[in-house]
Amino acid sequence: MPALAPDLPPPLVERVLAPFRQFARLQSASGVVLLAAAVVAIAWANSPWAAAYHHLWETPLALTIGATEWRATLHYLVNDGLMAVFFFVVGLEIKREVLAGELSSARGAALPLVAALGGMVVPAAIYALLNAGGPGAPGWGIPMATDIAFALGVLALLGDRVPVGLKVFLAALAIADDIGAVLVIAIFYSGSVNVGALGMSAVLLLLAAGANRAGVRRPWAYGAIGLALWAAVLVSGVHATVAGVLLAFTIPVRTRIHEWQFLAGARRALEEFDAAAHVTESDPGVTVLSNSEHHRTVEELETLCEQVQPPLIRLEHALHGIVSFGIMPLFALANAGVTLDLGALRAGAATAVTMGAALGLLVGKPVGIFLFSWLAVRLGVGALPRGATWRALAGIGILGGIGFTMALFVAGLAFPPGTADGQLLLDAAKIGVLAASTVTGVVGWLYLRAATARQPADAGSPSSLSSSSGSTASVAGSANTNAEPPPVRGS
Hints:
The structure is a single chain. By secondary structure, the chain is mainly alpha-helical. It folds into two domains: 28-190 and 239-254 and 310-472, Na+/H+ antiporter like domain (Na+/H+ antiporter like fold, Up-down Bundle), CATH 1.20.1530; 266-305, no CATH class. 65% of the residues lie in helices and 4% in strands. It has helices at 12-24, 29-45, 50-57, 74-100, 106-131, 148-156, 164-188, 195-213, 219-236, 242-248, 259-282, 292-308, 311-335, 348-378, 390-399, 404-414, 420-451; strands at 60-65, 68-73, 463-465, 473-475. α15 runs antiparallel to α17 (420-451). The longest helix is centred in the last third of the chain and has 32 residues, at 420-451.
C-alpha cells in the first residue's frame, strides 16, 4: 500500500529535543543529572554566593484557606512535599516487585532480602559504635539505604559484561533496602503521634483501598485522596513522605481485559483503520482529520490500551521522568550544599558523625551485603544469581555503598538544622555520605570492570532491566498470547 502522505521533516522543536530524549533513555542518565545537581549545590554553597544559596531554600511560603494558614519554607516543601512523590514511586516499585517481580516468590526474594538486611544492620552497627552516647547517635540510620539511581547508573556503564542476573539482584536489593528505609523513617524518625490524625490517615487509606476494589482506575481520584492522606500523615507525627508509600499500595494492578482480548480488538481496529485509509487514498482531499472512521478506530485503540495496562504501570511510567529528572535533582540541589568548613568539622562529635556515615557506607555496606548473601547461600536459603560469581557479587556489595539520596534524607531527619549544633552535625553527615558515595561508585565500577572482564553476557535471557523512579528491574517471561493468562495477584 503506498504512503498516504509524503514523509515530512520533523518540526524544529522535535529536532532540538531529540538529543535530550535520547540521553533521557539511557539507564545512567538520571544518575548523571543527580550527580550534576549535587556538584552544583556543593560549588554554590562554597562560593561567594553561598548566602544566596541558603537564603533561597529558606524562602518562606504560605497558604491561607479561610482562617487556616499553612507556613513552610521552600526547603521543607521539597523534603516533605515533593519527596512524597518520590516515595510514592518507590511504593509503586515495591508493589510491582512483590506481585510480579523478583520479590514475588520466596525463593527469588530470599537472597536480595537477606542481603539487604545485612546491608542495613552492619552499617548501622558501625555508625552506632562510633557515635555511642554522643550527640551524633541519632544518625545511625544514615548509612543504611542504597541509592538505586546511582547504583544502577554505574552498573549500566559496564554494559553487557555484567550478567543480567546481577543487575536484577542489585535492583531487587535496592527495593528491599527501600522497604527497610521506609520502616526506619516511619518508626524511628517520626515525631510524637497524634492519634486523631493517625485515625484519619487510616480512614483515607481504607477509602483508597475501597476505590481500588470498586474498580476506580482514574489517577486523579487517587491523587485527591493522596493529598488528603499526605496532610493527615503530616499532622499525625509520622513523617509525611510515608504517605506516598502507603498510597502506592492501594493503586490497582489488575487489567480490565486479557492480552488475547487486546490483540483481537487491536487487530480488528487496525483492519478497520486500514480499510478507511484506502478511502483516503482515493480522495486526497480526505485527511485523517476529516475521516470519522479513523477517529473512531483510534479512540477504540486508546480505550483498549487503557484497559490492558494496569494503572500502577501507567503511573510509574508517567512519573518516572518527573521524579528522575525533576524531583530528585531538586532534592540534591537543596540538600547537598554542605559548607566545607573543615576547621569546624574537626570537633569530636562532627568527626565521629563523618566517620560513622563514611565507614558505614564504605565498609558496612559491602561487608553486610556479601556476608549475609554468603550465609543465605551456604544455608540453602537462596542461590547466586544466574551467571554471577562471588567475586562479582562482592562488586555489587561495593555499589550498595552508594547511599546518596536516602542517606541525605535520613541525615536531615536525624539532625534538624534549626540549631548550630544540628547544622554542624548535618554538614558532617553530608560530607561522609558524599565522600563515601563517590568512592564506592568509582571503586565499585573499577572492581566490577575487572571482575567481569571474562564473563559472557546473558544472551537470550528472558530477563530484562527497566529503569523507573528510581528504577528498578523486573523479570518477565515469554507470554503465551494464544491462551487466557492467569489474573494478576493482588489488587
